[in-house]
Design a protein that fits this description.
Blueprint lengths: L2 E6 L4 H15 L3 E8 L14 H18 L3 E7 L9 H15 L3 E5 L6 H13 L10 E5 L20 E4 L4 H10 L13 H14 L5 E9 L3
Parallel strand pairs: 1-2, 1-4, 2-3, 4-5
Antiparallel strand pairs: 5-7, 6-7
Length: about 230
């Protein structure tokens, strides 16, 4: 069995990007740990100082509930400023990810695609790649990136190349749970045709499934794999 670390920028990204795979892996006995760098809500306020602190707490409560539904061993929060990761030294983000890598000691890491429209996603990828560099003693062997509806496709491949998956997970048994988890986020799911709707998530999984002969799949790009 493997220890898996998911590093997401915001609450709900863990569901949108890898939720069905995380549930499938957890059900098979893998230890899945969810980590969320950003608080995910203050950028929505007209004035950051006027953001309701209870909104952050409510979003984290939803994330904890979702972690339980997915079967995750743990969920942790970094509380970085929403859509403002670029206001921080990159080293601060790297150090937070490094702390989680040391604590959890994963063999497999999932995180964001480097070409996403959202700046927090792009910096999360950079921090993860730095924090998991293959120095002696690092147990991380596989690093995968996932797509986030309304962030990956809305960059239109103009920032760091398009999302080009090479690894596909059969999520036929867990796609309904993924959609239920998104709906558990009281402020994050949207009505169709928004990409963060249950109907759109199901269509995306069906599309990727059809690429590789499955009913439903989640798709990933493999960034690095180390075999010994």
């Amino acid at each position: 069995m493997s220890t898996i670390l998911v590093v997401a920028a915001h609450p709900d990204d863990e569901v949108l990007g890898v939720g069905a795979t995380a549930a499938r892996r957890a059900a098979s006995g893998d230890a899945v740990h969810l980590t969320i760098l950003g608080e995910g809500v203050t950028s929505r306020a007209a004035d950051r100082a006027g953001a309701d602190p209870s909104a952050v707490a409510a979003l984290q409560d939803d994330a904890r509930a979702v972690a339980g539904l997915l079967g995750a061993k743990s969920v942790a929060f970094g509380a970085l400023p929403d859509n403002r990761f670029d206001s921080l030294p990159l080293l601060d983000i790297v150090k937070q990810v490094e702390a989680w890598v040391r604590e959890i000691d994963p063999e497999i890491v999932y995180t964001h695609h480097p070409g996403d429209l959202n700046v927090d996603h792009r910096l999360t990828f950079q921090a993860v790649l730095t924090a998991t560099r293959p120095v002696p003693g690092c147990r991380v062997r596989d690093v995968y990136v996932f797509e986030i509806p309304s962030a990956t496709e809305w960059a239109f491949g103009r920032l760091a190349g398009p999302f080009s998956p090479t690894v596909f997970e059969d999520v036929t048994s867990t796609i309904d749970l993924k959609i239920a988890c998104l709906e558990r986020y009281r402020t994050e799911h949207r009505a169709f045709p928004h990409p963060r709707s249950g109907e759109a998530l199901r269509a995306s999984a069906r599309r990727w499934g059809s690429v590789v002969g499955l009913a439903y799949a989640e798709a990933f790009e493999l960034i690095r794999a180390v075999r010994s």
